């Protein structure tokens, strides 16, 4: 049995179909959270007083700095989502990495905009899970 046939058989199995659907959904969510991050970054860069910090916080940065962090992470997420849709294997690992960095940055961003950060954290957790499932299925 050739590698191509084994890969084709795996893709037509139930696990392969679920992993493939989860990957497409994860890529869609990665692109969507990337767009959200870009919009949040632009908002923070354009208007410094759009986010308000209630008290002292260990990870406090200037709002403009947070804007740039969100903008860069969002742009990377969008580019990697396009790579996942294109079928690049490297994009799966890169997607896990950018979702992990996004989750860390949004955890640190919790005091500025808690609801936004929690929603993005939840999506990042799903993205990491779905892309890890696809990587495990590829073996």
Describe what you observe in this structure:
The protein is mostly helical and 139 residues long. It has one domain (3-138). The protein has five helices and no strands. The protein has helices at residues 3-12, 14-46, 63-85, 89-108, 114-138. Helix 2 packs antiparallel against helix 5 and helix 3 runs antiparallel to helix 4. Residues 1-10 have low confidence and may be disordered.
Topology:
Blueprint: H1 3-12, H2 14-46, H3 63-85, H4 89-108, H5 114-138
Order of helices and strands: HHHHH
Please give the alpha-carbon distance between the first and last residues. Answer: 16 Å
Number of strands: 0
Give the overall average pLDDT: 82
Class inferred from helices and paired strands: mainly alpha
Q: Sheet with the most strands?
A: none
Radius of gyration over all CA atoms, rounded: 17 Å
Q: In which range does the helix fraction lie?
A: over 70%
The protein's oligomeric status is: single chain
Tell me the number of structural domains: 1
| Residue share in β-strands | under 5%
Regions with little confidence, pLDDT below 50 for 5+ residues? 1-10
The number of helical segments is 5
Tell the overall outline. Answer: elongated
Keywords: Membrane, Transmembrane, Transmembrane helix
Organism: Nocardioides renjunii
Protein name: DUF7144 domain-containing protein
């Amino acid at each position: 049995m050739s590698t191509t046939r084994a890969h084709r058989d795996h893709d037509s199995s139930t696990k392969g179909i679920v992993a493939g659907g989860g990957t497409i959904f994860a890529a869609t969510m990665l692109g969507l959270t990337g767009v959200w991050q870009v919009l949040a970054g632009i908002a923070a860069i354009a208007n410094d007083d759009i986010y308000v910090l209630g008290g002292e916080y260990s990870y406090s940065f200037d709002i403009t700095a947070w804007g740039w962090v969100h903008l860069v992470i969002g742009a990377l997420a969008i580019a990697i989502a396009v790579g996942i849709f294109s079928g690049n294997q490297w994009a799966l690992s890169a997607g896990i990495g950018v979702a992990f960095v996004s989750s860390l940055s949004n955890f640190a961003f919790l005091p500025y905009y808690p609801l936004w950060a929690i929603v993005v954290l939840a999506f990042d957790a799903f993205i990491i899970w779905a892309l890890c499932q696809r990587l495990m299925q590829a073996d």
